[in-house]
């Protein structure tokens, strides 16, 4: 199976967003990764609804929205109205995770939980049935262009094992420091989907960079 590639718009050229989105539309990327930050959960701000609403009509790929915010559930309806495909909420801000995941699915979106580098994968074991995807952070969230944390590979393998043993279809996505080298290791360890920001948008031929990741086979 090919790897699902989800280019992170955070690393795009914001002066030419339309051109960047068209590049993604015409690439092998299956999803588009959108990083929303609130300056509280993470020490940075990115973009929110005014920008998302403006660019939504030209995006042809399913939206993979990663919410790095303290109260993600406030925005379920607004995200569903934007026809978001997958809503990723962080484990670290979700005291009632089961309830939140159920609400996301009820709103018509796929439910995903994101784990920071220090959050163990065993913590999602009892909600796996409610999860369409687990997003493992391989950097501390908040910024693009950081170095990949190697320990993520062990987390991917552990989670793969957990999902396969139960015969579930839950996807594993990894976000942070993904490039051709780390991407190959992640897919070998059992990742289904890769987020890539600086590697894609910083490369001379972004579509080829996407295709290289897409061609990694598990
Ligand atoms: C970081 C974001 C990532 C970021 C990845 O907090 O969640 O999606 O854009 O950037 P790279 O691929 O450059 O590490
Ligand atoms: Zn992200």
Automatic annotation (TrEMBL):
A divalent metal cation binds at residues 33, 35, 66, 175. The active site is at residues 35, 175. Pathway: Carbohydrate degradation. InterPro entries: Aldolase_TIM (IPR013785), Ribul_P_3_epim (IPR026019), Ribul_P_3_epim-like (IPR000056), RibuloseP-bd_barrel (IPR011060). One of its GO terms (molecular function) is D-ribulose-phosphate 3-epimerase activity. It is an enzyme of class 5 (isomerase). Binds 1 divalent metal cation per subunit. Keywords: Carbohydrate metabolism, Isomerase, Metal-binding. It catalyses: D-ribulose 5-phosphate = D-xylulose 5-phosphate. It holds the Pfam family Ribul_P_3_epim. It comes from the Bacteria. Its cofactor is Zn(2+); a divalent metal cation; Fe(2+); Co(2+). Its EC number is 5.1.3.1. Substrate binds at residues 8, 66, 142-145, 175-177, 197-198. The keyword Isomerase applies. Catalyzes the reversible epimerization of D-ribulose 5-phosphate to D-xylulose 5-phosphate. Belongs to the ribulose-phosphate 3-epimerase family. This is Ribulose-phosphate 3-epimerase.
């Amino acid at each position: 199976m090919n790897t699902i590639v989800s280019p992170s718009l955070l690393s795009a050229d914001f002066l030419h967003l339309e051109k960047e989105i068209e590049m993604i539309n015409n690439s092998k990327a299956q999803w588009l990764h959108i990083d929303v930050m609130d300056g509280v959960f993470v020490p940075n701000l990115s973009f929110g609804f005014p920008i998302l609403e403006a660019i939504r009509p030209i995006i042809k790929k399913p939206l993979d929205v990663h919410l790095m915010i303290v109260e993600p559930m406030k925005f379920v309806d607004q995200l569903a109205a934007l026809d978001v495909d997958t809503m990723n909420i962080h484990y670290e801000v979700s005291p009632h995770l089961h309830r939140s995941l159920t609400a996301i699915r009820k709103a018509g979106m796929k439910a995903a939980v994101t784990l920071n580098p220090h959050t163990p994968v065993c913590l999602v074991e009892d909600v796996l049935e409610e999860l369409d995807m687990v997003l493992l952070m391989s950097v501390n969230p908040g910024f693009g262009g950081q170095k990949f944390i190697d320990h993520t590979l062990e987390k991917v393998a552990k989670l793969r094992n957990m999902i396969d043993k139960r015969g579930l279809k839950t996807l594993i996505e990894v976000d942070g420091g993904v490039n051709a080298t780390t991407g190959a290791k992640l897919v070998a360890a059992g990742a289904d989907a890769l987020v890539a920001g600086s590697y894609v948008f910083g490369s001379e031929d972004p579509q080829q960079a996407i295709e290289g990741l897409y061609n990694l086979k598990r």
